[in-house]
Structures are given as structure tokens and as C-alpha cells.
């Protein structure tokens, strides 16, 4: 969740920067931008907060599903995989029924006539969608969703991510050298740099840069010796009581 919120914060900062640049073009004045992670979280939660403010009843947590949209969530395919579908307007619902589910009769059912109706009849909606998707392979489902222009995502497991074609295409895996000279495969930094810094990816040994860091902090050689060298053992244990 923390990584998700950081990503949302980045989007908020980008929007604020774009707005500030546009305002500068119009007014010639700059702006100070202050975006706190907590504030972004509140904006992200605005549908729930507004529901609590104005109706006194926020929707209950829905996990991967959506508290106020249906159908929205993971659905299992014939090969046991899950595909997350997000129907967010009536056009998408119509295309889901016609092109993906190939069940246009659902569009005539009053229980599915609008999002609010589908939310009221959530169990029927979920069963109707799931009953058709369970007969199709993941490839068939995603192909139909793609052609129908209905938002979706594969619900990947860790092994699926390791084999993800986008990760391979963008070089998300790379080699790093351990202190003993062995090489291992690691996740590449998300910071794309061109050209890459010299020296390649090498894992430093334990304490390899301690002295360098201490010098940068301003410690003298004598002070560093006190930090780097363990104190001499005392002849009397600290817990021993003095002789009387």
C-alpha cells in the first residue's frame, strides 16, 4: 500500500507542477508546491469521505472489489487465473455484455440497468459475469476485453511477474556482483539513467565504506579509530561488584 500511495503522490505532484507551469505562462508568476502524502491519501479517499460526510454511511471495505461500482473486481477464468475487470460506465457494461460475455440479454434485465441497480443486486451481477468467464481461458478473456475496450488487468502471482514481457522489455532484471565475486540476478533500479554510472552493479562488502562515510561526516582519524576499533576488554566485568 505504501508504494501505491507514493505513486499516487508522484501523480499529484506532476499535476501540481503542470498547473503551476500553465499559471506561470498566464501570469508570469511562480508557485510554491507542497504535497503531503497524508493529504494525497485524503483526496484518494474522497468518495468514501464524502459519503460519510453527507449520508452518514461510508461503504464497507470491499477488498479488490469496489464498494460503489459493479462489476468491478477479480473473476476466475477456465484455467484458474484471475482477471480484474473494472466496468466504470454504461458503455463499458454494454460492451462487456455484448463482446466479452456474449450475453446481450443481460442488458434487458432491470437488475442490471444501471450501476446503482447492479450494486443493489451485486451478488446476481457477480454470478452472471463469473458464470460466463469461467468457461473461457485467460487468453480468450483478455483478448475480448482488449477488443471491447473494457478496463482490465491480469491478477499476477510473483512467478507471473518474473515472466512479465514488459519487465523483460524494459530491462528490469540485471546482474550484480557480490563481495565474493559471484554474480546474482537482481531487480534493476527504477531510475533510468543514460548512460549508466561507471563500475556496474556491485554489492559492497560489510563495512567497506564505513571510513569514507565517517570522513564525510567530519570525524577525525582519532575519532574514527574509536568508532571502528572495539574498546579494550576490562579486567573486571562491568557487572562485578567492587571488593570491600
Task: Please specify the SSE layout and strand pairing.
Elements (H helix, E strand, L loop, with lengths): L1 H26 L9 H8 L1 H10 L16 E5 L5 E5 L3 H11 L14 H6 L1 H12 L4 H11 L3 E3 L3 H5 L2 H5 L3 E5 L5 E5 L22 H7 L4 H8 L16
Antiparallel strand pairs: 1-2, 2-3, 4-5
Note poorly predicted spans. 238-244
| Count of alpha/pi helices | 11
**Order of secondary-structure elements:** HHHEEHHHHEHHEEHH
In angstroms, what separates the terminal alpha carbons? Answer: 61 Å
Average predicted local confidence, pLDDT? 83
Describe, in short, the structure shown.
The chain has eleven helices and five strands; from the N terminus they run H-H-H-E-E-H-H-H-H-E-H-H-E-E-H-H. With 244 residues, the protein is mainly α.
Structural description of this entry:
The chain is mainly alpha-helical. It contains 11 helices and 5 strands. The strands form 2 sheets. It has a 3-stranded antiparallel beta sheet with strand order 1-2-3, covered by helices on one side. A two-stranded antiparallel sheet has the order 4-5. A hairpin with a 5-residue loop joins strand 1 and strand 2. Helix 4 crosses helix 7. The longest helix has 26 residues. The radius of gyration is 29 Å and the shape is extended.
Keyphrases for this structure?
244 residues; mainly alpha; three-stranded antiparallel sheet; two-stranded antiparallel ribbon; 11 helices; 5 strands
